[in-house]
Each structure stands twice: as structure tokens, then as C-alpha cells.
Write a structure and sequence with these properties.
By secondary structure, the chain is mainly α. The radius of gyration is 18 Å and the shape is extended. About 20% of the residues have low confidence.
Length: about 150
């Protein structure tokens, strides 16, 4: 139960901030794997900066300042995730700290109007994630009940 709770909390943290960090991975990589047609739930990773730019109407200067912030946060997040010496709780704490630092850096670049709009977008995405997560949990709970016994 505790493991599921921790996984859910980590998933929520990732849904709120880290997906934005991951946007440049496929767009900036020169490998053929990164240029191949992406699949799966994260197939839109390469379009995140472009999407954020459109949603917030970022200037070219803002985009140039934000891109390295996301790249650095993605690299740090990957390092945290891969650090086998950390417990789940330590990883969550480090990811939360990384998220807060990144949000602060972003807010220094965005106008007050863009900050409000970005906050609203994050809240909408969080609600969507929670809804999908809840649906998945309900499906998982219903699956054992539907399985034939015998």
C-alpha cells in the first residue's frame, strides 16, 4: 500500500512538472532513434517547448532562456531517477526540490500574465493526470473481479 502511495505521489509530481522538462530530448538529439516516429504516451515529448511557446506566447528571447533550464532539469531528473543509492522518499524529495527550483527559474523569465496562464495550464494537466490515474486504478480493481475463478 505504501509503495503504491509513493508511486502515485511521484507520478503526480512528474505529471506536474517534469514532463515539461523532458521536451527537448527528442528534438535536440541527433540520433536516428530520436528522429524515428515516436510512440506511446510520451510521443509528444519533442513538441513540448513548441507547445509551451504557443500556449504562453513566448518571445524568442524567452524561449532561448527557458530551453537550457528545461534541458538542465531533465538531465538532473534523469540522474536522480537513476541514482540507486537513493530511497524512493529521497528521490521524491530531490525531484520536488528540482521542480521548485525550475519553477522559480521559469517565473523569473515569464511575465505576470504568462505566469498566471502557465499556472492554470499546470493545474489543468494535473487534473487530467489525476483523472487518468483514477480511471486506471478503477480498471485494475475491476479486472480481478471480472476474472473467472476456478
Amino acid at each position: 500500500m505504501k509503495t503504491k502511495l509513493m508511486a502515485g505521489i511521484l507520478g503526480a509530481a512528474l505529471a506536474m512538472g517534469v514532463p515539461v522538462f523532458a521536451q527537448t530530448a527528442t528534438a535536440d538529439s541527433g540520433s536516428q532513434d530520436a528522429q524515428a516516429a515516436p510512440t506511446g504516451p510520451r510521443h509528444h515529448r519533442g513538441n513540448r517547448m513548441q507547445k509551451l511557446s504557443q500556449e504562453l506566447n513566448l518571445t524568442a528571447d524567452q524561449q532561448a532562456k527557458i530551453k537550457p533550464i528545461f534541458q538542465q532539469a531533465r538531465a538532473q531528473g534523469k540522474t536522480i531517477h537513476q541514482d540507486a543509492s537513493l530511497t524512493k522518499e529521497q528521490k521524491m524529495a530531490k525531484m520536488k526540490e528540482l521542480h521548485q527550483t525550475t519553477m522559480a527559474q521559469m517565473n523569473e523569465i515569464l511575465t505576470p500574465e504568462q505566469q498566471a496562464q502557465w499556472k492554470q495550464l499546470r493545474e489543468q494537466r494535473r487534473a487530467q493526470w489525476q483523472q487518468r490515474h483514477q480511471q486506471m486504478q478503477q480498471q485494475q480493481q475491476a479486472a480481478p473481479e471480472a476474472a473467472p475463478q476456478g
